[in-house]
Amino acid sequence: MLHVAVAALLLFQGVEPRTLSLWATDPETGAPAEGLTAAEVAILEDGRVVEGLVVRRDDRPLVVALVLDSSESIADKWRTELQVAAIEFVRGLPDGAKVGVWTTGDRARRVVEFSVDRDKIVKAIEKTFPLGANSMLDGLVEAAKELRKQPGDRSALVAVSGAGFGFSDYTKDLARDRVQANAMVTFGVLFDEGLAAGALGGRTFTPGARGELPAGRADSDNFSRVGRGEHEYVMIQGARRSGGLFQAIPSSQGVKDALAKVNVALRSQYLLSYKSLPNPHERRTEVRTARPLTVRLGPSSVEEPGGR
Q: Three-state SS for 242?
């Protein structure tokens, strides 16, 4: 008898054939599920079981864009918590994974190009120091855009932010749309430390307001003050639409464990391929497994010869 591992329902357009991403972990240990086969999985579209299901481990080369809050608001947490967690995350990624890193202190900066050289990536993170306000939205948009340019079919946008305020060239809705248009799957971690009152360097930031620009910034008409709510909104929407994961945690001490969960997700990915049932409308897609597992469905794609 099949067990419903999780009520993970997504909406997809009616095209065939179809390939879905599936993240599967052991509910007791959190470890990646090993040896999952088509005999253990059922895909239902609008309540009907699909046929011709093929299940295979997703061993395609992985590309990760890592966006880190390096603002003054979390300066006392940077080296003791965030830097350590980020380095451990990078070192724990699957072999051959290509990683690019952005920091968001004062402005979004790419501190290292996409690379498989772990030591190079770690050194770039170690050289970063906290600075200015949190430009997380700009970092997310820029990283997602560059991630899209990378070759390959498997990519992830991973973001870590505190609760401090900052600036952005984007409204939250525009940032959401840009991220969703470019990132294959989004993982967000937001911890409730930083500037709760929104003060930085003697200035007070009001989310959504326009006003004084930091030195070197221009175009005040497109410059907004944003905060925790805007960062959370873009992360949640990106994770929800892509089948990723958003984690809100009380303290930076939990960032290490939160990123470990992301690493497990990236190591526990399967591809489910099948012919979609004819349906001109959007359909509900549900996955069931024969063994008890924690599962989550990811992006859907149309299989095209030579296509992405």
A: helix
CATH number at residue 91: 3.40.50.410
Q: Are residues 94 and 54 in the same domain?
A: no
Q: Are residues 69 and 150 in the same domain?
A: yes
> Is residue 89 located within the same domain as residue 39?
no
Banded model confidence at residue 183, pLDDT cuts 50, 70, 90:
confident
For residue range 117-127, what is the model confidence (pLDDT) as tens digits?
999 999 999 99
Q: Is the dihedral of CA 290, 281, 51, 62 positive or negative?
A: negative
Range of the domain at 19: 10-59+268-302
Query: In the numeric block, which tokens belong to residue 203?
Result: 């200035």
Enumerate residues 6+ apart whose C-beta is below 8 A from 304: none
23-44 pLDDT, tens digit per residue, is: 898 888 888 899 999 999 999 9
**Dmax of the chain from CA atoms?**
64
pLDDT of residue 279: 63
Its pTM stands at: 0.81
Q: Retrieve residue 52's tokens.
A: 């011709």
> Considering only 4-8, 113-117, 251-255, which range has the smallest mean pLDDT?
4-8
Exposure of 238 in the CB half-sphere (CA atoms within 13 A): 34
Identity of residue 163? A
Give the integer Cα–Cα distance in Å for 20 and 82. 32
Same domain, yes or no: 91 and 196? yes
- Could you tell me which of 275, 266, 268, 272 has the C-alpha nearest to residue 38? 272
Asked whether residue 115 falls in the same domain as residue 260, the answer is: yes
Domain contains 5: no
- Work out how many domains the chain is built from and give that number: 2
